[in-house]
Amino acid sequence: MSLRVTVWNEFVHERNNEFVRSIYPDGIHEQIAGHLRAQGLEVRTATLDRPDHGLTPEVLDATDVLMWWGHAAHDKVRDDIVDRVQQRVLHGMGLVVLHSGHFSKIFKRLMGTSCGLTWREAAERERLWVVSPNHPITQGCGRFIEIPNAEMYGEFFDIPDPDELLFVSWFEGGEVFRSGAVWHRGRGRVFYFRPGHETFPIFHHPQVLQVLANGVRWCAFAGNDQMVSIGQAPNQKEPLEELSPKDYVAGALRHPPASVC
Question: Alpha helix locations (H) across 145-242?
Fold first, then answer.
């Protein structure tokens, strides 16, 4: 079965800003989805204005990896939808969070921190250095990715220490930033990737698109299906091994041994 991906985009800037629309006429979500479909993945899109923001239980149940891009309408995302997405991640759905999605409700929920950072819009050069060259997500990137015009994101980035740091950005103005990192949450995998401001054609950049495809494949759950689902573990009463006879009174041995070696 083909890997099933849902690309979520609030789809606000492309409708309200003619310049953004000229870069992404069908929306950032369709630009990304088109590339992933060309990679042989099964891709649907979802946007803020759809019922349940396009993230109904049926859609999420049929999603192996969810990609999230948001910026202007983080507060418009319903909390019950965030709860729904969080539970799917804990049960094994992958999540790829893009650029300003760092401040989305779902990313902050999963990180447990403010996810704040510093920023500047000056169309400056960005160089994303690969700091984990053996990770599946960084394959095909070489030593670095060069982006000629980007919005600066700078430290301090208030995130928990990642399970692995993949990219560190240097900007023309001198700042650095942890631009690509991964975490495990429950049975799910989370990948944050910084590039992608709406006023720059970054999601047309071949290497950026390659990282997104790599990230989707890495985030797809490949764990132990025999494990009990997170949050649904039964109260196990039967031991796996035969226990020797013991005589308990109120949780203590009636005749404890005289000494313990």
Answer: 206-219
Q: Is residue 226 part of a domain?
A: no
Our count of domains for the chain comes to 1
- Indicate the pTM of the whole model: 0.90
Q: Per the structure block, which two tokens stand in for 245?
A: 């006879």
Confidence band for 245, pLDDT divided at 50, 70 and 90: confident
Average pLDDT, the chain: 92
Q: Is residue 54 part of a domain?
A: yes
Tens digit of each residue's pLDDT (9 = 90 or more) over 16-31: 999 999 999 999 999 9
Bond into 156 cis (ω within 30): yes
Q: How many Cα atoms within 13 Å fall on the side-chain side of residue 233?
A: 7
b/e per residue 163-180 (b: at least 16 CB within 10 A): eeebbbbbbeeebebbbb
Instruction: Report yes or no on 184 lying in a domain.
Output: yes
What is the token pair recorded at 157? 């980035």
* Beta sheet of 118-130, edge-to-edge order: 42-47, 4-9, 65-69, 94-98, 188-193, 176-185, 164-171, 118-130, 144-154
Query: For residue 57, what is the domain's CATH number?
Result: 3.40.50.880
In eight-state DSSP terms, residue 103 is: G
Q: What domain range is 102 assigned to?
A: 4-112+180-219
Q: Are 8 and 50 in contact (CB under 8 A)?
A: no
Q: Are 107 and 185 in contact (CB under 8 A)?
A: no
Give the HSE-up count for residue 191: Cα atoms under 13 Å, Cβ half-sphere. Answer: 26
Q: Which helix (H) or strand (E) holds 163?
A: none
User: Is 254 within a domain?
Assistant: no
Closest CA to 201 of 18, 58, 22: 22
Residue 128 burial class via C-beta count within 10 angstroms: exposed 0-12, middle 13-18, buried 19 and up:
buried
